[in-house]
Amino acid sequence: xxxxYFNFNLPKELIAxxxxxxxxxxxxxxxxxDTRTWEHRLFKDLIEYVDTGDVVVxxxxxxxxxxxxxxKEKTGAQIxxxxxxxxxxxxxxxxxIVDPARKIRIGNKLYFGPNESLVAEVIDNTTSRGRTxxxxxxxxxxxxxxxxxxxxxxxxxxxxxxxxxxxxxDAERYQTIYAKHEGAVAxxxxxxxxxxxxxxxxxINDVLWQEITVHCGMGNFRAIDVEDLSKHRMDAEEIHxxxxxxxxxxxxxxxxxxxxxxxxxxxxxxxTAVTIPGKVSAYDGWTNRFIYxxxxxxxxxxxxxxxxxxxxxxxxxxxAFGGTEFVTRAYEVAIKEKYKFSTYGDAMLIL
Length: 351
What we know:
The chain has two domains: 3-63 and 170-350, QueA-like (3-Layer(aba) Sandwich); 67-152, QueA-like (Thrombin, subunit H, Beta Barrel). Helices cover 21% and strands 29% of the residues. It contains eight helices and 19 strands. It has helices spanning 141-151, 158-164, 170-173, 196-204, 243-254, 264-272, 313-322, 324-336; strands at 27-32, 37-42, 55-59, 61-63, 67-72, 78-88, 93-99, 109-112, 118-125, 130-136, 181-184, 208-215, 237-241, 259-262, 274-276, 279-280, 283-287, 302-306, 347-350. A hairpin with a 4-residue loop joins β9 (118-125) and β10. α7 (313-322) crosses α8 (324-336). The radius of gyration is 21 Å and the shape is globular. It starts with 26 loop residues before the first strand and ends with a strand.
């Protein structure tokens, strides 16, 4: 399968710069795979497409304020550091992305916060923009993380930072209402549309809400740079799928109920948890699974996803689930109807 099959023209004005006023009033395009038709609804209408006994699985990761602004030693050059993941708890070693990368070399010290209250030393290069840094901080790990939170900013995608910067409301809206386990540096954006009112309606209708944890990384935004999709390697993300969730999913499927997965991150995690076709088991670890057509899905009957950029892994997975020709046609309609795309964009429900 070739990357060029998944290219299309996305007008820049359709990239959402801000979220909808109310989370569940984003637009929702509903795709019916059986009839190859679609509907134009609002996200809160999702309740009409799930029945009693159906299971909705969402990602309860919490976005860490992992964007730091600082200065390089001696020159005072302004730098930006994205914390990716902690490599060593005791040594304060972190995998980071730096910008501008050309100015950051091994041995450099980086200073953050008022009065340079936090210092990091670059100890290795990992990729063109990636570095390993060691933070120099006196105190417990809890105090260190608290200090990072006090200095950190919401890690908005680069396209939004360039369009309009980081706004105060991003701290709340770039987070799902059910976020619990801190560790993501990118939001599970399909889940941003859920409101407390919609979750309450699920409860009243006996729709089973289940949560797993996928700590979404910056790999969500990394461009695919190979034409042959079989040669693309996704960045690994940490996932936690409990046995309780697996048991509830399997029981619902056995009783003929539908399984709705919220987002490409949840789809990757649940497919990683598949042990034999049709069976899922608890999983704690990492996944770099890349799903592209043709692919046989084992868990989901329905999938919720946002409208994504051309040639992105998210769009490619949506095509794998809904059918490449059908989803591509739906995207053409979405562009004509001026649906909003990307992080704060509108949603798609594939049935």
